[in-house]
């Protein structure tokens, strides 16, 4: 699939087109679409992406019929057969089914198919790509690839799906998610209550990991006491986030649940397609499932509030202010912003 873009776009938008083209992007867990005809929809740039269970085989494709461009799906997720409401074209068991095939006498109708994307897996995580420059394992690197494999084996079914359009440039929204400098002022009654320490950044190619201990001793003690309910092995005892360049974050506290966030770019100025999913860890015993469910529901509510607080402040930042060059003034808490911009600058240099 070729992505067309205008020379008049902002730097961040033009970079985004190349980044979407050239990287693998995580979109969901396999267990989010466990049944035949289950699907999830995503907005990316100026197209829509469908992740679909085709009788046990995961396919990812552009959400338009190859005939005349009608959209197959309108909902964010659901269970529905692929069938065009316009002329009846459908898809099942790896085959495109064309209505009244015999009437297509003046074209090679046998060549028609969905506009499919590449599908990759890291454990239970599902990725898509268009024209990836590297294999998925090479892009993630050994440490993050291994971490995702282990994490995904410990997660249950999706506990929350949260989606809306950030009224901000994608790079602005993503940088906000990368740095903890804003937390005390923006997340006063939510994330700030953890009193996170400065933490440690580990840079792994273009990806990174931030780990921070919880400074609120009372809350940290309470979280430690809950470890017996969750089947987690090797999780960091505190808050951690994995940045999967260029558009995804995976964050957790004590490994009790993981939030996967996508900040997919739009071709419109000051617009980001944001999606978050919350996956709870498995319960150690069936008798603890109610406790795990209650904790997950509480975490989902808090996360939604945190993301809305981020959105409100990101709306204030003009996308014209973003550049792949380092900011003139930066805190020690903004090291991941510098790292992110350095990674983006390699793509910006291709535009000159």
Question: Would you mind describing this structure in some detail?
Answer:
The structure is a single chain. The longest helix has 26 residues. With 352 residues, the chain is an alpha+beta fold. The chain starts with 10 loop residues before the first helix and ends with a helix. The strands form 4 sheets. A 7-stranded antiparallel β-sheet has the order 11-17-16-15-14-13-12. The protein contains 7 helices and 17 strands. It folds into 2 domains: 111 residues, Rieske [2Fe-2S] iron-sulphur domain (Rieske Iron-sulfur Protein, 3-layer Sandwich); 194 residues, Naphthalene 1,2-dioxygenase Alpha Subunit, Chain A, domain 1, CATH 3.90.380.
Task: Explain the layout of strands and helices.
Elements: H1 11-22, E1 25-29, E2 38-44, E3 47-54, E4 57-62, E5 77-79, E6 82-83, E7 90-92, E8 95-97, E9 118-122, E10 125-129, H2 136-152, E11 160-166, H3 170-178, H4 183-186, E12 200-204, E13 207-212, H5 217-225, E14 239-244, E15 248-253, E16 257-265, E17 272-280, H6 289-314, H7 335-348
Antiparallel strand pairs: 1-10, 2-3, 2-5, 3-4, 6-7, 7-8, 9-10, 11-17, 12-13, 13-14, 14-15, 15-16, 16-17
